[in-house]
Please model this.
Amino acid sequence: MAELDTSSGGSKKGGKVRSKKQSTRVDLTAMVDLAFLLITFFMLTTTLAKPQAMDLAMPDKDKDKPESKLEIADNRTMTILLGQNNRIEWYMGLVDNPKTPTVDNFGRDGIRKALIEKIKEVRGITGDPKKGLIVLIKPSDKSTYRNLVDILDEMKISDVQTYAIVDITNPEIGLMKRDGIYK
Amino acid sequence: MPRVKVPRKSTAIDMTAMCDVAFLLLTFFILTATARQPEPLPVDTPASTVKIKLPETDVATVTIGQGKIFFGVKGQQIRINMLDRISKRYNLQFTEQEKVRFSVVETFGVPVANLKQFIALSNDERNQAGLQPGIPADSTDNQLHEWILAARYATKELNNKDLRLSIKGDSKEEYPEIKKVIDIFQKQKINKFSLITSLRQAEK
Model:
């Protein structure tokens, strides 16, 4: 680093009075602090600002393709109905004869518990790890977009392999009305 | 025997090199950081735990909020090509200048009939809240369908890639609005698309 000689001429006696030259060295610590602070800020904002994308595949709507229709055992299906005020209701089997219809909440103590339990149960029934739980998600007109994303997120968290978003039917709306989560 | 004196060293360190590096990195990050475009329709995206990032190119975003639908495609050339197709479809004429002006708009939400006035507005005027009424997507006048179709053709022609569609919905938005857009996607046989979410901060 370039440094000027500041001690020259100070010791001579009887010479002219010279003003002492100041050192050109500047304390850079504060500047470096600031620079690193800004670096951290820009690094974090550039990577975190990108939005997350949740991939979603909808079932094919083609009616003239009968092979895309699949018959599934009703002891493997769980239907989740999204009602109003962030409430959900789920049942196993068919809507005509719903087994254990339960009004539930989102989150760890709500639907996740039920999902994990049912995944285990279905695996026990079929005895085949490939034939796991099938979840049908039926959002009602009163549910919000947040509910939809939350329930899809629950599918990812509890690792449900097969799930689909399906249109809701009238008997199911009736079921939700009965339990007071759809008005 | 005299003790060996260890000369005291100064604790001041030469910061110049460190300062140089710090500012070099700072400059790099400032320049690479993309300035956030002001959004004409601010939405509060719901949180999720997925960590997959949205790709930078060949993406179209349908923004849904307050009952309005906005549409945006990445890439200026694609937007110009898309506008050409729309102008043919609706028999509208746009000058070269208008096309260039349109190509810098990231997201828009006006009916095709108002497109000319919309292009003539300045950037600040466009982003005023409530100025853009949204793109009509009813079954009688499904302009969103046409925009998506035009964007898909444009992406295929220019980049030879399939356009990836994504929905950016407000978390308070009711499901029928979302369903309407999903139905438009499915009508074009798009069964795979993305939902844009923000990162969930902490586990509940």
Remarks:
- Chain B touches chain A through 57 residues (CB under 8 Å).
- The radius of gyration of chain B is 25 Å.
- Chain B has a mean pLDDT of 82.
